[in-house]
Amino acid sequence: GAGVSQSPSNKVTEKGKDVELRCDPISGHTALYWYRQSLGQGLEFLIYFQGNSAPDKSGLPSDRFSAERTGGSVSTLTIQRTQQEDSAVYLCASSLGRLAGGNEQFFGPGTRLTVL
Amino acid sequence: DAKTTQPNSMESNEEEPVHLPCNHSTISGTDYIHWYRQLPSQGPEYVIHGLTSNVNNRMASLAIAEDRKSSTLILHRATLRDAAVYYCILNGNNNDMRFGAGTRLTVKP
User: Fold this and answer.
1) B35 and B60 in contact (C-beta within 8 Å)?
2) SS3 call for A62
3) Cβ-nearest to A42 among B93, B95, B99
4) Are A116 and A14 in contact (CB under 8 A)?
5) What is the pLDDT of residues B37-59, one digit of tens each?
6) Given phi > 0 = left and psi -120 to 50 = alpha, else beta, which region is A58?
7) What residues of chain B lie within 8 A of the CB of A102, using their CB?
8) Could B32 and A101 be called an inter-chain contact, meaning their C-beta atoms sit closer than 8 Å?
9) In chain B, what is the straight-line distance between the N-terminal and C-terminal CA atoms, in Å?
């Protein structure tokens, strides 16, 4: 079956503009995660969804970042008033259930965001 | 969260075995040990995970120390395609993976 997909694959925007990044998880996966990875760095956890609710928003770096998930499927990560430090690859992952207990995550290819 | 310690980088020759170490001395009884890898310009992919016993799958083997304070990911015959950053992660009750810097594996032909 299809894996996790993300769109767009690349996004170049000007400082101060808003951007929306989309993630389509694997069908049937109840958990969805957003991470970001700056150049040459490890992954930084942003937010986790179980169904449509986000019990853990602790990783969102500022109030310019928000995310929603509708219908227990597609998720959108929105960054308002983008800054140059927001430039990174934004990765989405999904899992069949909660990670506690050993479920694995499946990652999408990422969206490369460049803020000029 | 319990933390892991991995070497920054390792080198291997093609078709030779590779042993990637991970120390996790503060591991708790409910923590699973996960390994993911990230090939260049791709998202991470699952490799293997275990709790107490050694595990084998088509990609690799995971050897877990008896006290669970360390583990080793074993690639039995490294190929050029195995060049990647390998992440060792503990997960018990959290719903995310806290990725560290990982080990960058270079495979020489």
Assistant:
1) yes
2) coil
3) B99
4) yes
5) 999 888 999 999 999 999 999 99
6) alpha
7) 32, 34, 49, 51, 91
8) yes
9) 38
